[in-house]
Please model this.
Amino acid sequence: MFNHDLQHTGRTAYRGPSTAVQKWDFDIGDGGPSSPAIDSDGNVYIGSNDHKLYALKSDGTKKWEFMTGNGIQGSPAIGPDGKIYIGSLDHKLYAVKPNGAKDWEFATDGIVTSSPAITSDGTIYFGSWDQKFYALRPDGTKKWEFETEGAISDSPAIAADGTIYFGSDEKLYALRPDGSKIWEFAGGVSSDPAVASDGTIYFGGAHQLYALRPDGTKKWEFATSEMVSSCAAIAPDGTIYFGSWDHKLYAVKPDGTKKWQFAAGGAVISSPAIDLDGTIYFGCENKQVYAINPNGTSKWGLETGGAAKSPAIASDGTIYVGSMDHKIYAIGSGSR
Model:
């Protein structure tokens, strides 16, 4: 799913490529606005503004495509049963079978750009611009809904204890699995939340990264000079990596002090991915995909034809990233 797991840590158990070689690219019609999802067989799923969800094999050939009623701007998520869940600007969430056939659709009263989160029992959580947060059963029927005061555009994160965190305009909400509210935090929310192993919740604001305790009180905030819309990634040692519109990727210690910053050539809206060795991968508005060592030095960079979005790492070490030049790129250490 988006940012790899339910906590949005961005952390994988795979080692990414040591050098940047473009293995292949695939034209997805009209932009690749979000992160791809990768299943256990290595198939890659990505949505497009051309109204389609694409399923690609690891060699870059198309497996199938699924048509929705409007553009797709959120990332796909893959459930325990192998189904692919995707929202659309046609106000619907779709469940698609592994063979590309529609299983069901669920209609809301607003566009759906929220990437779903699916728990081990198959419950699907997502938000809509109709100011409602939904919990659906695996068969597409509604368990409950929670009404907010604003549109819900981003993906929820779910802590180990089952607490659900999501943002809606100016507030971050914490809900129990039954849909009842635990607390809300007003401070401005501009990114998806991420949850650390100690329960700390990280999310972006207008000019800062917030850190909240599980009870909703603020631990600290880290100031940047521009908006933080990048979902934070969390390394095993607790280091938090996130980007800002101020053209920087930041590494911040769990106590809120800066470890280092990396100057990119454009706004960093992409959410980082972390590999087994601690290398951080992210896309940039200057059309670059970067690999950064854990000490903040550059490992490599590769240019795409458009603004590069949030990457995902496959089990064979291939990096997949969508770009605003209407393509998805596969990056590895060797040629195709």
Observations:
- The first strand starts at residue 21 and ends at 27.
- The chain has no helices and 32 strands.
- The radius of gyration is 18 Å.
